[in-house]
Structures are given as C-alpha cells and as structure tokens.
Amino acid sequence: MKIIKPLQLKCSSVFAPYINEYIEQRRAIGFKYNTDVQYLNQFDRFCVEHNVTVPIVSNELLTAWLEKYPNEKPTSHYVRSQRTRAFVDYCRNSDIEVTHTLHPLRNPTSTFTPYIFTHDEIRRLLIATDVVSQKKSKSSSPIIHLVLPLLFRMLYACGLRITETLLLKNTDVDLEEGVLRLLGTKGEQARLVPMSESLISLCRSYRTNPLVLNFGSEYFFPAPDRGFYDSSTIYARFRECLFEADISHGGRGKGPRLHDIRHTFAVHTLDNWVKQGKDLYVCLPILSVYLGHTNGLSSTQQYLRLVPEAYSSLTNSFEAQFSNVFPEVLDETI
C-alpha cells in the first residue's frame, strides 16, 4: 500500500501560528490533512501578499481570498471554500475575531442521487450473493464462494467503502474484540469500526475455514493471486447479484452502485434512530466518526434528507424536524 507522507506547512503570515496549531491538532488525532495544508499554505501566501497584519477574519479578506480564479475548476474552488470554512470555524472557536459568515458552496460534482435499498432488497441482495458465489468457478478462485457472501454482508453491516474492505488484512480484523482497524483510508484517516455479534460470528467461521486458512494470504478477502481484489471485479459480481435478486439497474454510473450499500447503511441507521425517538443531532457525530467522514458533520448531515425520501411514512415528522438542513446530493466522496 502506498504510504502518503504529510505535507509540510510553510507559513509566515499573521495567521501562521493558528494554521500551525490547527493542523497540529488534527494530525494528532490521526488525520494527515494534506489537502488542508495545500490550501492553507496558499491562504498564508495570500495574506502576506496582501499585507494582512492583524489576525481578523474579515469580510473583505475572505471575499478576496475566495474569489474564483480565472482558470480554477469549479471542483477546486469548492474544495478551497470547504477547507477555508473548516479553518474559519477553528478560528472562531479559538476566540479569533471573525466578522464574516462563510456559507458553503454547492458541490459542483453532486449530480447523482444515491439508490437507497429497502430492507427487503438488502435481504434479497445478500441471499443473491450466496447463490452467485456458488455459481462462480472455483478453479479461478478456490475461495470466492466464501469471500463474496461475507464481503457484501460486511459492506452493509459496517457501512464501509469498497476499497477499505478489500484492503483489510488479517491483522486488521480483531475477532476477539470484534473490531475492524482501518488504516490508510480515504483522507488518510485511521479509525476503528466495531462489528455486530452476528457479523463477528460470520467472520470467525470464515477465518477458521480450512480453505481460507490454507490459502495463505495476508488479506482478509484474498484474490486468486493472494493479493487484494480490484473493486471493478467486485462490481461485476455485484451486477450479477442485482440480477439474481431482481433489482433493476440503470447501467454503469446510474446505479445502484456498490457505494450505495454504504449510503443505505447510513440511511437505515438514521431511520432506526428516528423510529426509536432519538435526537439525531446528538447521534450524528457518532455516525460521522463511524463512517470516517473527515469534514465534520457536513457530509453526514446530507443523509438526513434521504430518510424521508426512502421512507415516505416518516416524511411529515422528519421534515418538520429537519427542514432547515441544506440539501446536497451524495456521491463517492463520502
């Protein structure tokens, strides 16, 4: 696995001490924050070039800094705005004078509404993984009939990204504590993911199966060459499982996608909390950490609007409670 080294800060403006402390605090809890370093280095140079001598986040300063460059891509402008917004929030919480309210830009890449599986569709999909797995040739992959059923159950039960799952090594799956240790994930954020008792039991049965033990790979879900599967291979099996489960597919890029299993986990979790009468704004930080979102609650909050869309019986009570949450479309960025 490629190791990405943290970028170095090169700050000298009046905001330099605050930028250094901001990045130091985030890196102390496991983030690399390379993207933030890149943009904050630029912000620091901007402040030097514009002779900013007082550490005040003013309307004039942010308006000038966040003006879109002539050749800047919309996505880059969006990311620069988001990273700046996070730093401004830190400044505000650090008692630095902030005289500007920075409203989030709409994500220019958000063009897809995720497919949220119903509980019945998830049940059918998981049954289909058992059927499809048994049909695959064991000569090309002797343990694929053991890998696929557990892999798809882990995707749904833990809300993992497909790459996180495929890169799991045996040492990352603690079957005593029932915890997955995810390292080098999206945003280079390490995290621990607890598993349910039923999933732990399935993992133990899988790991102690003689076929898996004798296969001799460091990866928990080994490919035929004893390395890790490419996500495109699993996507191909996913399409077969959808067909077996009688769940229609609109074609590549139109969904359902593998990543929609993760979205479904999040929405089903929120749906259960709503039914239990829990305060979602108290629970959201828990879900955010569990999912490994690196930009605070902004990504996790986007799931709120999908609960009434997926479960119309909850629409009235849910929208009355959370109608103020800004709507954004979800994609693989979360």
Number of strands: 3
Q: Please tell me how large the radius of gyration is.
A: 22 Å
CATH class group of the largest domain: Mainly Alpha
CATH-defined fold name of the largest domain: hpI Integrase, Chain A
State the shape. Answer: elongated
- Number of helices in the DSSP assignment: 15
Mean pLDDT: 81
- Cα distance spanning the termini: 21 Å
List low-confidence stretches. Answer: 313-319, 322-331
**Which band does the percent of strand residues land in?**
under 5%
| Backbone structural class | mainly alpha
What order do the helices and strands follow?
HHHHHHHEEEHHHHHHHH
Helical residue percent? Answer: 40-55%
* Cross-sheet strand order for the largest sheet: 1-2-3
Q: What is the number of independent domains?
A: 3
User: How would you name the CATH homologous superfamily of the largest domain?
Assistant: Intergrase catalytic core
Q: Characterize the biggest β-sheet.
A: 3 strands, antiparallel
- The CATH architecture name of the largest domain reads Orthogonal Bundle
What does this structure look like?
- The chain is mostly helical and 334 residues long.
- It is built from 15 helices and 3 strands.
- The chain has a 3-stranded antiparallel sheet.
- The longest helix is centred in the N-terminal third of the chain and has 20 residues, at 74-93.
- The protein starts with 15 loop residues before the first helix and ends in a 12-residue tail after the last helix.
